[in-house]
Amino acid sequence: MSNRILVCLALTVAIATVAGCGKKQADEKLAERMTEEMLEQATGQKTDVDMKDGDITIKTGTGEVKMVATSQWPEDMFDVVPRFEHGTIERVHSGTDAGLRKFNIWYQGVPDDASDKYLAQLKSAGFESQLVSMGAQSGMTSAQKGDVAVQFMHNLEDDTGVLIAFEFVQE
């Protein structure tokens, strides 16, 4: 999916907020149409936007992005990725780009030792650690197993984190 679509996602979220107010279905349809037009102008691609119950799906000719209002681990997460259970899921975004899947899972209430604990889980599941970086107020863990990579970024100051899992083509 082009970078323009990713830039426009912030605008989509703002429009989706409008869809949550008042006459829900009418507002959702209006927000969908406005978002489609905006993304089509920005990218030059036919775009289909579907908003329902706080979830947003954006489809283009090159891929799809889903922003799901959920606090659940994605059912279609890669089988090899261990479940991260060191905090509370705040929201989930998933999508495909050129046929490759990716997930972003935002957490709150993440304890200070979560990066170390999750790195141990990843290693137990056969992942190879690619990068471990810890600063005074943040940490990042990156690991890979086959064609699946996982990154976990942790803000120690506000106890938040984001887990990113994606597949890639190995050359």
Short description:
With 171 residues, the protein is of the alpha+beta class. The chain has helices at 3-19, 24-43, 114-124; strands spanning 48-52, 55-59, 63-68, 88-97, 100-108, 128-134, 138-145, 148-155, 160-167.
- The rough form would be described as globular
Order of helices and strands: HHEEEEEHEEEE
> In terms of per-residue confidence, which ranges show pLDDT below 50 for 5 or more consecutive residues?
5-23
- Compute the number of strand runs: 9
Instruction: Find the structural class using helix and strand composition.
Output: alpha+beta
Radius of gyration: 17 Å
Strands of the biggest beta sheet: in what spatial order?
Answer: 1-2-3-4-5-9-8-7-6
User: Helicity, in percent?
Assistant: 25-40%
DSSP strand content: 35-45%
